[in-house]
TrEMBL record:
Coiled coil: none annotated. One of its GO terms (biological process) is response to endoplasmic reticulum stress. Belongs to the protein disulfide isomerase family. This is Thioredoxin domain-containing protein. Residues 1-51 form the Thioredoxin domain. One of its GO terms (cellular component) is endoplasmic reticulum.
Amino acid sequence: IDCDEEKELCTKYKVNAYPAVRLLKRGNEGEVISTRYRGKRTRRAIVSFAKKAYLPPVTHLQLADLKNFKEVDNIVIIAYVQSDQESVLLDFKATASLHHQDFVFGYVTEMPIADAEGLKVPSIVSYKADGDNRILNGPFGVPEIETFLRVVKDDIISEFSERYIETYMSKSKLTAYIFVTNEEDGIALRRTLTSLAKTFQNVITFGLVDAVEYAPMAKSYGLIEDVFPALVVHAPMNDNVFLYKQGKAITAETTDIMLRTILQAKATNGQVFGTEEQDHSSH
């Protein structure tokens, strides 16, 4: 909508800065309800916002629904409960209603489904697009569910922002920067490297960096322009920098070799990993 042409409409929906996104839906009595989007201006984030608005606060799932529902959004929360565990289900539904704009929620009451998933009942599972799934085993109430949601909302590979630069520059840990130019590469590399990020989370901070927005940062680490995705490891304690060979596919195996070599103090400043020679010498 061009707000210069449709001033009255934009005023009606309180649009006073651009670009702006509003989600409009019909209420129970036919009225139009406008919801302001305040998230990131990316396709993935906006689609996620629309899905949460479209779906009910919590969905009762059958076996046929489960596989697709797990993948309907970036984070999907599913409770596995027995049909007679009414208080547990009420607590879950109440929490889901409060956090409907943050997560997609569903629940299962068929015990064969929980058994097939290898889960105790009651339990809650967060299914994440990056594969960092987590489980909350019962018994639990609203406080425990709230704590669980706060934990699963954080990504082990966080999106880099200058606002949190102190986190990435801590001298007590290494920092692994994953530079990407599109969401697809970011999603794929999160899946590839999340397991490693969890393994090394006490000694390495991982960040996903927009290589377009932070092009000067990529250049400062010696990266070649327009050859992305790329991986850089920075050691804030001595300002050493280690590179993954640009143009070569970033794999978990080679990244693991790279990180272990650096942590064992066997790498030299400026060393490039991902070449056959480096892979062989690092074993």
